[in-house]
Automatic annotation (TrEMBL):
Residues 280-442 form the Glycosyl transferase family domain. Synthesizes alpha-1,4-glucan chains using ADP-glucose. HAMAP family: Glycogen_synth (MF_00484). Belongs to the glycosyltransferase 1 family. Bacterial/plant glycogen synthase subfamily. This is Glycogen synthase. CDD domains: GT5_Glycogen_synthase_DULL1-like (cd03791). It catalyses: [(1->4)-alpha-D-glucosyl](n) + ADP-alpha-D-glucose = [(1->4)-alpha-D-glucosyl](n+1) + ADP + H(+). Its EC number is 2.4.1.21. Pathway: Glycan biosynthesis; glycogen biosynthesis. The keyword Zinc does not apply.
């Protein structure tokens, strides 16, 4: 079975969020199960590309509207990621450093999808399944069936994974002239509320769509930024499959990015050693519990209530708790957090930006991780935290609802219901009280670290889905 994963992010080539982690791990685990899985993504002029060798395996040309575009397909020479990786490079369009934030994103992603199909056709490649990830490649299920030049792909099965239904890739109909020529009688499959909506198009046209947790699937039926009716109407081809984590990369027993390795056998000592060195670097007291946040400063992540959480906790339990924040994003939120750092010079530290090694060290050093998300399709941070014996304090939403069980129900985390600083800080205080009971804490950490959130289980569900489509 040949499966091509199509995505604009893939860790460690180019990462902005959890999409990259999924695409960087799932194909590897599928290959372990006997699937011939590979990844095709745009070329980004980043560290991974600069440090690895690539060979040109194909070149070609196509018209995007009236513009003739040249492209080349590059293959990573050593399969260093555990699967074949292909990059599509288009000079001036798909050869930049950043993944997002360009004014011509619509042109970028249309060109990427067109070049991909052109490459398949002119090199005699026909996979059994094209697995598309998020709206950036949402036109593929439509084009394989309705584009004039690619009718031979109409029997290829398409799977579309919704990593975040809030972002849909809307574009005005004036972009329709740069799409590959298609059967114009089918224009309605592209349209939603008067604009081209690639996410809606993918849900209408794909053979199956998946969400990254079962809880998120049910939530999309109720609220999906205007597409909830569509998700519900197409529920017969929906699968909720929770994301996994790459346990070869995220494992405190072997992780080379943390200062001291540990396992469930010596978790108490191991975490304290990591915390001591981390706190020394950031001016925190290693003898106090450490609460951390890792992620984007975005309202969907609940980052706008972070300042309120910090203030409530440090006003109430000052001298009994350290707080560390690692993230970047909304300038207003970032500015408010920067001002808090001045207001609370002790017990509070911040690193603005993203640093992969530092993230590993934060998971290893922290006692608790907070995730006050408004929207969380799956969430990976809570899974990383659990693997490192760090107790998650999360809002009861989406994938967090599916993967975190409150200690009051015999679980290993703490939940709260509403996105507000009061409820979130009260959940942290509950966790703080729990940390004062060493026997219970160690039992909970052992339980958390032994949980199986690996990709093995989730990948097998994708194989089941693929097999059903191919029968």
């Amino acid at each position: 079975m040949k499966v091509i994963h199509l995505s604009v992010e893939c860790f460690p080539v180019a990462k902005v969020g959890g999409l990259a982690d999924v695409v960087g791990a799932l194909p590897k685990y599928l290959n372990h199960l006997g699937v011939d899985a590979s990844v095709v993504m745009p070329y980004f002029n980043r560290k991974f590309v600069q440090e690895h060798s690539f060979e040109t395996v194909a070149t070609g040309q196509f018209y995007q509207g009236s513009i003739l575009m040249d492209y080349e397909v590059l293959k990573e020479s050593t399969d260093a990621l555990g699967f074949p990786l292909y990059l599509i490079r288009i000079p001036g369009l798909l050869d930049r450093e950043e993944v997002y934030c360009y004014a011509d994103e619509a042109e970028q992603w249309i060109a990427f999808q067109h070049a991909f199909l052109h490459y398949l056709k002119h090199n005699g490649i026909k996979p059994d399944i094209i697995h598309c990830h998020d709206h950036h490649v949402g036109l593929i299920p439509f084009l394989t069936r309705n584009a004039t030049d690619y009718k031979e792909f109409s029997d290829i099965k398409t799977v579309f994974t919704v990593h975040n239904g809030q972002y849909q890739g809307w574009m005005n109909w004036n972009k329709g002239i740069i799409l590959p020529a298609f059967d114009t009688w089918k224009w309605g499959l592209l349209d939603w509320d008067g604009v081209i909506n690639p996410l809606a198009t993918a849900i209408k046209c794909c053979d199956a769509y998946t969400t990254v947790s079962e809880g998120y699937l049910s939530e999309l039926f109720v609220e999906a930024n205007g597409l909830q009716r569509l998700f519900y109407d197409e529920r017969g081809k929906a699968w909720g499959i929770v994301n996994g984590i790459d346990t070869a990369y995220w494992d405190p027993a072997t992780d080379k990015q943390i200062t001291d390795n540990y396992s469930p056998i010596n978790v108490q000592e191991g975490k304290y050693e990591n915390k001591s060195k981390f706190c020394k670097e950031y001016g925190l007291d290693p003898n106090l519990p450490l609460l951390s946040y890792i992620g984007r400063f975005a309202t969907e992540k609940g980052a706008d209530i972070l300042p309120g959480i910090v203030r409530k906790l440090l006003d109430k339990v000052a001298g009994k708790l350290n707080i560390f924040i690692l993230g970047s994003g909304d300038p207003a939120i970032q500015q408010e957090i920067a001002e808090l750092e001045k207001e609370f010079p002790e017990g509070f530290a911040v690193f603005f930006g993203y640093n992969e090694q530092l993230a590993h060290q934060v998971y290893a050093a922290s006692d608790m991780l907070i995730m006050p998300s408004r929207v969380e399709p799956c969430g990976l941070n809570q899974l990383y935290a659990l693997k490192y014996g760090t107790i998650p304090v999360v809002r009861n939403i989406g994938g967090l609802k599916d993967t975190v069980i409150d200690v009051s129900e015999g679980g290993y985390g703490f939940k709260f219901e509403d996105v507000n600083a009061t409820e979130a800080s009260q959940a942290v205080e509950r966790a703080l009280d729990y940390l004062q009971e060493p026997k219970k804490l160690n039992e909970t950490r052992d339980l958390a670290m032994e949980l199986d959130f690996s990709w093995d289980k989730s990948a097998s569900k994708y194989v089941e889905l693929y097999n059903q489509l191919l029968k």
